Amino acid sequence: MRGSGRILAAVLGLATVVAATACAAEGDAPRDVEVFTWWAEGGEKAGLDGLVAQFQANCGQYTFVNGAIAGGAGANAKQVLAARLAQSEPPDTFQAHAGLELTDYMNAGQLEDLSAEYAEWGLTSAFPKGLIDNLTVNGRIYSVPANIHRANMLWGNTKVLASAGITSNATTLDGFFADLEKLKAKGATPLALGRAWTQLMLFEAVLISDLGADAFTGLWDGTTRWDSAGVDKAIADYQKLLTYTNKDRDTFDWTDAEKLLVDGKAGYQLMGDWEAADLDAKKFTDYSYSVFPGNTGVYQWLADSFVLPVGARNPEGTKCWLKTVGSAEGQQAFNTRKGSIPARTDAVASDYPAYQQAAIADWKTLKQAPSCAHGAACSQGYQAALDAAIGQFSADGNVAAFKAALITAAGRFAK
Ligand code: GAL
Q: Is 149 a pocket residue for ligand 1 (Cβ < 6 Å)?
C-alpha cells in the first residue's frame, strides 16, 4: 500500500473507533471536538497548541481531539478529508483556505452556515471587509478565519549568503540569478525546493514578477491568458531557476527543503511565512527574509479558516472552537506562534514577533494578490491540475507540454 493509502486506511480506522466511542456514550452530550489540520510539527504545531490552550481555557466542558495528518499544505490531509466527507464521517471541524478552496466545500453542501454566529460573536466587524467578501457566498458565511499568511517570501541562510559575498537580497530576477550563480560557485545549493505545491508557489512568485499583481490575479478568473508573452517569459525564468535547485526536489516536503537552509547547505528558499515560526521553533537564528525578487509591493496572501461541517458529531463543541478561533485572544495565541498575522483588525502589533510586526504593516499598505497553491485564488480542481503539470515539468523539462497543460487547466477551471 502506498503512503497516502496507508494514511487513509489508518485514519478511516481511527474514525470508526471514534464513532464507536461516541455511540457508547449515546444520550450524553458529546465532549470530544475533533480538529482536523495538517499542523503536526514545528511552528505549525506550536500555533495549533496556542489555539488549543485558549480553547481549553474558554471551553472546559469540551475535549480537544487532535486529528492532524502531517504533510505540508495538506498534501496527505486533504485526501483523507475528501474520503471522510464522501462517507459522511466528517471531523467536527477542519481547516480550509478562504477563497475558492472553501467555495468547493460550500458548493458541495458540506458546510453549515455560520451567519447567525457571526452576528452573535461580533465577527462581521472584526475582520477586514475584503476577507469577509472572500468568505461570503450568496450572503452567507461558512468559516471563521484564523489568520493571514504571506506566500511570496524568500528566506536565506545569512552565513551561507555572506560566504558567497551576498550581503543584501536582490530585488529583481536578474539580480537574483546573479546571486544564485555566486552561491553555485561556492558549492551550495543556491535555491532549496520541494515537491509539486512548493514548485507551484515558486512559479506563482515568478509569474507575479513577470506579469505584475493585476495580470497575475487575472490568470485565475480567465481575464489573463496563459498563452501570452508574459507567461512564456515566466516559464523561461522558472525553468532557469530550477537549474539552481536541489535535484531531489520532487521527494521533498517544504520542511526538507528548509533543512537544507538550516544545515547551511542551501542559500535561499521561497516559502510562506509559516517558515518564520518554524525557524524560530527550531531555534535557528541566522536567517534573512525579504519579498521574492520582482514582487516588491505585492502581498501574496492566503488565509486558514475553520468550518462547521454538515453532520459534525459535536456542533456545539465545534462552535466553541470556532468562537475561540475568531476571538482576539485566540488569534493572538495562534498567530504569535504560527508566523501569520491575525485576520482581526483590532490586533496590537507590539504583541507580535518582529517579522509579524512588519507583515501587519505591509498587509495594510501593499497590493494584495491571492495564492492558488493555498486555495485563495483557485478551486481544488485547478490547483490539482497545476500541481500535476508542474510536477511533470520538474521531471521532464518539456516547456511545450507544460504550457499546454496550463492552458488546458485554465480552460477547465478558470472562472
Ligand atoms: C498552508 C497553510 C499554512 C501552512 C502551510 C504549510 O496551506 O495555509 O498554514 O500550514 O500550508 O503546511
A: yes
Distance CA 80, CA 13 (A): 11
The best mutation among 35, 36, 39, 44 to test binding of ligand 1, ranked by most ligand atoms within 8 Å of the C-beta, falls on: 44
Question: Residue 307: beta bridge partners?
Answer: 143
Task: Count Cβ atoms below 10 Å from residue 74 Cβ, excluding itself.
Answer: 24
Q: Is the CB of 302 under 6 A from ligand 1?
A: yes
Cut 0.85: pTM above it = yes
Q: How far is the CA of 78 from the centre of ligand 1 (A)?
A: 12
| CB-ligand 1 contact for 38 (6 Å cutoff) | yes
Position 18 confidence tier, pLDDT thresholds 50, 70, 90: very low
71 CA: nearest ligand 1 atom: 12
Q: Which residues contact 239 (CB under 8 A, 6 or more apart)?
A: 393, 397, 399
Which DSSP string corresponds to 104-141?
HHHHTT-B---HHHHHHHT-TTTS-HHHHHHHEETTEE
Give residue 27's pLDDT. 64
Report CA(23)–ligand 1 centroid distance (Å): 33
Q: Is the CB of 47 under 6 A from ligand 1?
A: no
Instruction: Give CA angle at 339 (333, 342), nearest 5°.
Output: 55
Asked if 135 and 413 count as a contact pair (C-beta separation under 8 A), the reply is no
For the CA atoms of 148, 106, 126, 92, the dihedral, rounded to the nearest 10 degrees, stands at -80
CA distance 143 to 137: 11
| Ligand 1 geometric centre to CA of 206 (Å) | 20
What confidence score (pLDDT) does residue 133 get?
87
Span 308-344, pLDDT tens digits: 999 999 999 999 999 999 999 999 999 999 999 999 9
Cα angle value 323/327/328 (rounded, 5°): 175
Q: Is residue 249 in contact with ligand 1, taking CB distance under 6 Å?
A: no
* Interval 265-275 mean pLDDT: 98
pLDDT band at 23 (very low <50, low <70, confident <90, very high): very low
Q: Relative to the CA of 374, which ligand 1 atom is closest?
A: 7
Reading the block at residue 133, the C-alpha cell is 467578501
Read out DSSP for 49-114?
HHHHHHHHHH-TTSEEEE----SGGGTTHHHHHHHHHHTT---SEEEEETTHHHHHHHHTT-B---
Measured by CA distance, the residue closest to atom 10 of ligand 1 is: 73
